[in-house]
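[step 3/7] fold_predict: job queued, chain A
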Amino acid sequence: MKVSVAGENSFIIYFADHACAEVSAQVQQACTLLKESLGNVLIDLIPSYASLLVIYNPMQTDGSHVQHKINASLSNLSNSQNTSGKLVTLPVYYSEESGADLAELAKRANLSINEVIDIHQQGEYRVYAIGFAPGFAYLGEVDERIAAPRLSSPRLKVPKGAVAIADRQTAIYPAQSPGGWNLIGSCPMSMFDADAQPSMPVEVGDIVKFKAIDREQFFSLGGEL
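[step 4/7] structure written:
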């Protein structure tokens, strides 16, 4: 692990050069320990795949004090893959109607559409990071059988709620936006609501499972195509 200065009031902790369940668990443990250790001087913690950005209030403390607290917290990390994250089950309407790339992905994988759906919903996916838009959770890892490269030409408009795969990651688009992931279905649940508390149904460290629903259930839950 490496701790580096990231700005006038921030440090970044690099846990490894790759993402995996153990590294993700360490990031989550560090978040918990630093919240307790830094208390009110902490402005924000921004976790990612294998790093953690620590932003502190320079009016209440100094960098040497924060770095000491970071080092002390890191020394207490365990190698356990367990985290305090919650299990979140999200409904998905899998179909060629709601997933424009479902048939092509199945063909490329030499699988039936139903087999792709079954494999996708049987997995348990860790939330490794949240970005490029509010509520966009990067989930991994997808079964190798249904992993698929990003599209060679990204779409200008991917609909809100689109469930997609890129390489061995899967995600739900929280709002209409450009995107180059393979679309396999749609989720009727909102992934980001600025007026809600919490604003997102998942956070880094959570485990996500998908559950197939039919077209009627999708619309009854507020889904739109």
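[step 5/7] annotate
The chain has a mean pLDDT of 93.
Helices lie at 21-38, 63-74, 102-108, 113-122, 215-220.
exit 0
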